[in-house]
C-alpha cells in the first residue's frame, strides 16, 4: 500500500536534480510485453543504474489498456495521432560535469536499447524538471503503489515555446494547488531536433513528427480513479482549462502501471543494485541479510558515481 500524507509536501526533495532528460520509449513490435517489461526492469535497468554520474533514474511503465477517462476532452485539443508508448524514463544529474561523465560512458548502455526498443526519444531539460507538489511519502517506488498515476503529454499549437511554457506552467500550478491531486511533476523540455537524434542508440528510431517537436509532460497522481474523475468534473477544473486550445493542439494521456526507481540522490536503490523484481522479493520476504553493507559490497564495491 502507498504511504500517503495530506499534510506534508515532499516536492523539495527533487530539487537536487538540476539537469535531466525525459525519454519516451516504444517496445519492438514482436517482443511480447511481459518479456519487454521484465528485460527493461531487470536487465537494462540495473545496467543503466551503474553508469557513472547518475543522480536519478526512474522508469515509468505505461499501460496500453487505457480507459477513456484519463484526461477529459478539452475544446480545440485532440490526441496525438499514432502515438502509442510503453514507458517514460527520467534520467537526472546534479551537475553538468555529472552529465558529461554519464554521456561518456553511455555507449555500453545505448548498445542494449535495440534488444527491446523500437523507438526512444530523449527530450532535453537543461534546467531540470519541476515537482510542484508531492504528497507521497515514499521517495523511491518500485512497482504499482496503489495510486492512480497518469501522464499527460501535451503538444504545442505553434512554435511559440515561451507562450506554450507559460500556459502549461499555469495549468500545473493550478493542479498542484488542488487537494485531490497528490503529485504534479512538470517536464517542459527544449524543442526536439531531428537533426540531432537522441539518444544515439543504434538500430532504434529517434525521429519525431512535427506535432511532437515541442511538448510538455505532466506526471499526476490521485488517490483513486474516482478521485480523478470527480476532480475533472469540478467547476474549478473546468475554469482552469478554458482557453487551453489557444496554445495546445494535442493532448494524450497514459495510465502508469508501475514506477521503478533505480538511482535516487546519486545512490543505487535496492532495485538498482539487484533488479526490480529481486528487490520486490527481498522486501516481500523481509530478507534483512540481503540489504546489509556486506552484501551490497559483494554486488558492487563502491558507489554508483565512483570511477
Provide the fold topology.
Layout: E1 19-27, H1 33-49, E2 56-63, E3 87-93, H2 96-105, H3 107-113, E4 117-125, E5 130-134, E6 142-143, E7 148-156, H4 161-176, E8 181-187, E9 215-222, H5 225-232, H6 235-240, E10 248-264, E11 267-268, H7 270-274, H8 276-285, H9 293-299
Antiparallel strand pairs: 1-3, 1-4, 2-3, 2-10, 5-8, 6-10, 7-9, 7-10, 8-9, 10-11
Write up what this structure looks like:
With 307 residues, this protein is an alpha+beta fold. It has nine helices and eleven strands. Strands 1, 2, 3, 4, 5, 6, 7, 8, 9, 10 and 11 form an eleven-stranded antiparallel sheet that branches.
Descriptive tags:
alpha+beta, disordered C terminus, 307 residues, eleven-stranded antiparallel beta sheet
N-to-C SSE string, H for helix and E for strand: EHEEHHEEEEHEEHHEEHHH
Shape: globular
Biggest sheet features: 11 strands, antiparallel
Flag low-confidence runs: 302-307
Number of E-state strands: 11
Category by helix and strand content = alpha+beta
What amount of the residues lies in strands? 25-35%
**Alpha-carbon distance between the two ends:** 37 Å
Describe what is shown at a glance.
With 307 residues, the protein is an alpha+beta fold. The chain has helices at 33-49, 96-105, 107-113, 161-176, 225-232, 235-240, 270-274, 276-285, 293-299, and strands spanning 19-27, 56-63, 87-93, 117-125, 130-134, 142-143, 148-156, 181-187, 215-222, 248-264, 267-268.
